[in-house]
Structures are given as structure tokens and as C-alpha cells.
Specification:
Elements: E1 4-6, E2 13-17, E3 21-23, E4 25-28, E5 31-33, E6 43-48, E7 70-71, E8 95-98, H1 100-103, H2 109-113, H3 116-122, E9 126-129, E10 133-134, E11 147-151, H4 157-170, E12 174-179, E13 198-204, E14 207-210, H5 217-234, E15 239-242, H6 256-271, E16 276-279, E17 301-303, H7 305-316, H8 329-338, E18 346-347, E19 352-353, E20 368-371, H9 375-379, H10 393-404, E21 409-413, H11 433-449, H12 462-466, H13 478-496, E22 508-513, E23 518-523, E24 526-531, E25 537-540, E26 547-552, E27 557-559, E28 562-565, E29 570-574
Parallel strand pairs: 8-9, 8-21, 9-12, 12-15, 15-16, 16-17, 17-20, 20-21
Antiparallel strand pairs: 1-5, 2-3, 2-6, 4-5, 6-7, 10-11, 13-14, 18-19, 22-23, 23-24, 24-29, 25-28, 26-29, 27-28
Helix pairs in contact: 5-6, 7-8, 10-13
Length: about 575
Amino acid sequence: MRARVWAPRAAAVTLVAVPGERPMRPAGGGWWEDAGSLAHGERYAFRPDGGDPLPDPRAVWLPDGVHAPAAAYDHAVFAWTDRGWRGRPLAGGVVYELHLGTFTPEGTLDAAALRLPYLAGLGVTHVELLPVAAFDGDRGWGYDGVGVWAVHEPYGGPDALKRFVDRAHAEGLAVVLDVVHNHLGPSGNHLARFGPYFTGRHHTPWGEALNLDDDGSDEVRAWMTGNAVSWLRDFRLDGLRLDAVHALVDDRAVHVLEELSAAVDALAAAEGRPLALIAETDRNDPRTVTPREAGGLGIHAQWDDDVHHALHALLTGERQGYYVDFGSMTALATVLTGAFLHDGRWSTFRGRSHGRPVDRARTEGWRFVASLQTHDQVGNRALGDRLSHLAAPDRLRAGAMLLLTAPFTPMLFMGEEWAASTPWRYFTSFPDPDLGRAVSEGRGREFAEHGWDGEVPDPQDEGTFAASVLRWDEVDEHDHAAMLEWYRSLIALRRAESDLSDPRLDRVRCEWDDDARWIVVHRGGFRVAVNLGDSEVSLPLGACGREIRLSSPAGAALEPDRVRLPAGGCAVVEV
């Protein structure tokens, strides 16, 4: 490996490596390079203008932490066994989101890889990992990454990620990685010492904005897009979830997301396998997933929070904050047929109109990743309580049925499928005591300002993290095992019957009653009927029901052109 670094404002850069230091030579365009080479595993750092030695901004391996020298990494050393892997398209898929540190007691990539046969047996097709980029400390969600190109060493480092991907492909599972380019964490962020990676023109809720459109932004954009391509090419990942892309402020004519989607599509064509970019965005703007040739950004899919909010508010009765406009069957029917509730209409939470309508005839539903639970929607609650802590089992089953028969790409959050008893809380482990104290106090203050008068678990307390680790012994316990079987049955039914995964939004039709709290969703030759009311109801099918394919609880029965459901009941009926 040849050492190279972009440091356009430095008068001199020194390479710090074993056995000593040597000056680097200018290579044009603000780049510096070393004439020699570094062996795989050899430690090295850069010293711009005689300052402290700093790790490489493109380091793949940071074995000693984010403040220490990097180790040279040769991607050719790893021996892959997945040569026959041709990928899995996101369309028709089921995504499973997991956090490596809490998915298993060991909290490593190798330990998580041992659970991949379980995930394949569940029926999911894509495993989405929360960020693995190196951050300061051992424990964290991963959204405070500073070694953006590196794999967090406590998870196992770069080779462990490759082993995980290799094993996943052997199980027929695609792997998606959550990446964060809109900001860097507060500890170990040395990029500004090298060049204009950040700009004062824009700001994010988390601090300085990445420089995507100011002086020197060409190389910053290349750093970002190059990082994304490296994950897909060098680690053979199948997709990326792009964190909070609305915070990637870019005033240039070609938005960086459009540039990124073009680069990823070119890589997919070269490698002969599908690669997906999935954006997290709160804009409700379908142009995010509109192809570039049609004037969009060309991102392949996006998270759809409106579907989550419609289901969560309906199942729990919560109406605070951004749930205020949700909770009715009308809202649910709106998102099931059009992806967004706020599609240009008034948003009470925002105090303004919000969003843009989806072209139901031209935009496929699979481009919207929908969920009942996510790391954000669980972890950003004061106590990290899951939906299973807030809603009765019959409502959980009804919610799962609505999600897994919808025209979207459904996503599960780890443990959801067995109604895990463990919370999933916000946790950190910053070594700097002042920073740790600020995070702890800030978390408590944030919830107090929003009217929470209870105790908020301290993010820096190791017990907060420990409480969030999944308990796999629950899987075989009676109630948990029954929920797991329900999810397996729903996923299998979705896979077996194409009408239940049909992404054409203009073919979805709903009938509902807000007062009686029931809904019937027409999905081709099937009807998905849900009764969240307190009384038994007889619901219209619009055709003669031939067979109840799946129902909960016992008591669903077919009548001429109708299905009878007990209170809290749900059923998939073939007509």
C-alpha cells in the first residue's frame, strides 16, 4: 500500500511509520504521497505541518482506536468464498435491522454471523447493520463515527466484516450497511486538520456540515462517494442505508446524492449484481427515489416514517409529537395507498404544509422501506421501550400483518419478531469524562424540556447498554415462540403469494371505518382484514371468500362476501 493523503493547506506533511518518519512529496491538487510502500498491518500516521500524528482520513483499519495510528490494509489479502454470489434485489425483499453490539451477548461480527442461519430461516432477505464506522469508546449506536472508512475494532475490524458478508451470502442473505456522512462524532474527528472537510455555510443538528458545495468540495465529495463505493466493492456489501440525507446540504447543480447514485449504478453494472442505496429523509419528497433520467436523485429506496407513524399511533393510541396527525384508519389507508400522509397537506407537528404526492402509477411501492419499529423509533424514546411494551399481543400481530402484506419493502428491528422483552436504549461510552458527562446531562435535559418527568437512563452507564442486549433464550419461551411463528408464517405467505408483495400502489384499495376501527385492504386476490375495535364485526370482502389463509386469534369465520372477526382479530382471506 502506498501512503497518500489530501492536505491542501499544509506546507509540509510527514509520514510517521515504523521505523521512523519521512517527508512526503506533493502530488498535485493538494495531495501528498510517499515514495515507499506500507506492508499489510504496518502502523502509520500523518503529521501535517509538524503537528501531532493523526490517523489517515481514509484508514480502513484502526486497531488501536480513533486517536492512534492506522494500520495499512490490503483488501487482496482476504480469501472470499462467495464467488457465485449474484446479489438479491431489494424489490420483493424483507429487511432485518440489527445493532452488532446488542444483537448477541458477545457484541461482535463473528458472533452475529452465527445467527445468520436463524435469519435465513425467518425468511428475511436483507440484513441491515447499524453503522460500523470506528468511533471513540467501545459501546455506542455508531452514529458518532469518526473513522468513516474503518470498521470499529471492538466489532472485529475489517476482516470480521468481510467474514460476516461472506457467511451471509452463503446463507442467501444480502447485507446493507448504515453509513453516516452528514456529520462526524465529537471525539476523534481530525478531518479539519487535513483540509476543508466542513463548511460554515450550512449547519446540521449535530454540528458542522460536510463541505459539499464550498471551496475545496470536489475532494470532499470524492471522499464521501469513494467511501460508499469502497463498502460495496471492497467489502462486497449489497447496499447502503444513507443516514439523514436531508442534512447533506448541497447547493451545486448536481447534488452529491445524484453523483453517488450514478457511481453505484456504474459499479453494479460492472459487477453484475444489484446494489441498493436507501435514504433516510424526512422530506417526503418522491424525487429522492425518482430515477436520474426522470429528473430525480436516483436513490433506489427511502425509509418511510409515515407508514411507521400511522401504524404506531393506531396500535398504541399515542398522539404526542409527530404522531399528532396519525392514529386513524383514514391515515393508515392514506399511507397504504400513497406512501405518505403528508404529501403536500398540513403537518400539525411542523406548523406548515409538508411533502409532495407520490405518482402512484409510476413509483413502485418497494422503493419505500416501511416498519413497525426501528432503532430510532425505539431508541429515541426515554426508556427505549419497544412496541411490545406499549401494545397488546393481538395488536402486535395485526400490525405485523398490515406491514408484511403492504406494497412496501418491510423492515423488522432485531427482536421484534419474537416480541423481545429487552428495551433498546440510547447508550455511549466516551472515554473523555467531560464529554461523557455532557452527553448524560444533555439526554436528561432534552426529555425534561419535552415534559418527561421520569428518570432517563444514563447513556454512559454500562447498565443502560447491558439492558439493551437481546436475550436469545426468550425465543423458545411460549408467548415469544408464538409471536416468532406468526412472523415466520406472514413472511412465508408474503413470499408464496405475489399479490401480497405486489408493489403497484395504484392497485391497492382500502375500505375502513374510523369509528368502528376496522380496515380491509384489497391486495389482488386477497383481502387483509383487521379489527382493532372492541366488538366483533363482519367485514366486506367485495367477493366471495374462498379460504382464510392466516388469522389471529381463533374465531375468524367466512360468511357470504364477508369475514367475521372478533375484537382485536386480523385475517388474510383469499377470494
